[in-house]
Amino acid sequence: MQLDHARTRAIKKSIDSDPIDPDSVKEILIQKLTAAVARLQADDLLPADLAPTVLVERTRDRAHGDYATNLAMTLSKPARRKPRDLAEQLVGAMQADHGVAKIEIAGPGFINFYLGSDAWHGVVRSALQQGSEFGRSTLGAGQRIQVEFVSANPTGPLHVGHGRGAAYGAAVADLLAAVGFKVHREYYVNDAGRQMDILAASVYLRYLELCGESVVFPANGYQGDYVWDIAATLHREGGDAMRHPVASVFEDVPADAPAGGDKELHIDGLIERIKSLLGTRDYRRVFDAGLNAILDDIRRDLEEFGITYDEWFSERSLSDSNAVQRCMERLKKSGHVYAKDGAQWFRSTDYGDEKDRVIVRDNGQTTYFASDIAYHANKLERGFSRVIDVWGADHHGYVPRVKAALDALGDDPSKLDVLLVQFAILYRGGEKVQMSTRSGEFVTLRELRREVGNDAARFFYVMRKCEQHMDFDLDLAKSQSNDNPVYYIQYAHARVRSVFRKLAEKQLVWDRAAGLASLGALIEPHEDLLLVNLARYPEVLESAALNHEPHQLTHYLRELANDFHTYYNAHNFIIDNAPLRNARLALIEATRQALENGLRLLGVSAPDTM
RNA sequence: GCGCCCGUAGCUCAGUUGGAUAGAGUGUCGGUUUCCGAAACCGAAGGUCACAGGUUCGAUUCCUGUCGGGCGCGCCA
User: Fold this and answer.
1) Which one of A75, A137, A259, A347 has the fewest CB atoms closer than 10 angstroms to its CB?
2) pTM of the entire structure?
3) How many domains does chain A have?
4) Rounded CA gap, A505 and A498, in Å?
């Protein structure tokens, strides 16, 4: 069955003025189908109590037209009729004025809609007119959304595991901004707590060594070279002023693991001794020297990676302002806190957590969890309509207790999305790259960036779904060859630039207006495919943003680049036929714009030459 | 033991609230260049969607169980 209809005024109008809006075509089709169902019901051809939800989708396969609906199949059972028969009736009941060139019934009962050959021309015009804005939308207008990502403890340089969270978080944030959300990018700085004390102790012990003391470095200390650097700066600026004999530092400290003791007790004992020997002021000096040096390094590292933040939120500020204490009081008033074994427990099991959690230790100190409750309460107080946390997947067990706490505080836990990022496993020469944080033998993000470049690193990190374990092939990422998807896309972009350079060499000028006016000359299958896929770009952006799935964009860009390369291979653009030449140049320039915009969103450059 | 994630082509991975013949890259094999950049293009081969049930017009997709892999289960952060 095949019905041909004149194109509607609406479609013609859209070609002449605004670009066709895929959503509006879809909406029109849904309305017409709904009306068709009502008409069949009025004629007693369908049960009157039917209230179907009509679903119209872009087709996956070009052979199935531009849009399709499964309506006849979903109605088949309640209507007790064969899907294909039903489909014929539905099509017959549709008003002719539905804006499509052809309708087909296919497969088990799909109704396929074919738009006119020029239906997608508008996308070229909007890409050229909107330039770097092409693809962006106002979907999230008026909504503020916070994205917190990386938030690595400032106890050492970022490593390749943090890199994935960085690239992913940045891409999600940029995608959300691209569809109109007001995005607030934030890094939570864990500048309080035991890990930082261990760093301070490590720095101080290295400092003592620089003073000439002989130190047996604790097994649990931070052993990286950067600790030496921090200690050296401290020693250069202040000399031996903070020196204490090693014997007094280690006095009464429990034995370390290598000596048959416990490494945790040993390091905690050292911290206490160092705190009391140095006093509050000098201890803070050592502590802050480590914190600031590492934080500066992290900030620089991320900036070089193309990632900047709106806010670096200090954990310490939460306790300094008594926000943690106030939050604990609120929790207590909610009736979900009890005392046991000298500690204060939050009964998170009331909200589905596996077990209750300590928020105040028996020594009176609040836990990291307590700070995190206060932090998340603070986020919601700031009025974000949505709050996104990007965490390493190893923290997944932590999600229920944070949501439980928000619930207990009377906040809405559904405003919080926690996106868990799995580890990336590096491969070099086909071998797994072994990593161990403790011994300092880990690959830093900086080393990775130096080895494969920022572009490949940003792209490879987001090529996979975040909950997917990822094999990161270093050799592939740095190979300047055809098997590297980053180069494939960048090459397509550079190729368009090259065409225009060639055009200039031949003393020709692209007449943009003429090109737009003669888009009807684009009748090759390659051109049709490129147009259709180009029109998908705004839809892909929207889907990738709302689903927090930048990998959708990487796959799309590869497809678009492929469509272009194929087109390039099959046809010449710089030809004598001026109207066709201008139209083709308009098409590839529009394609280039989409490639550039997509790459930029992922933090990848769009080079003019390779 | 309990909880979460994952299992799709030799390898790395897509698969749009369940839809049409399960796709792409890479690898293997074969082809394309006096012509805008061959970092490209075209073709072939390659599958029990881990396994077994269930739900229904229809299941890679949803449910249950089994097997295999990763992670988590602190008064650490």
Assistant:
1) A259
2) 0.92
3) 4
4) 10
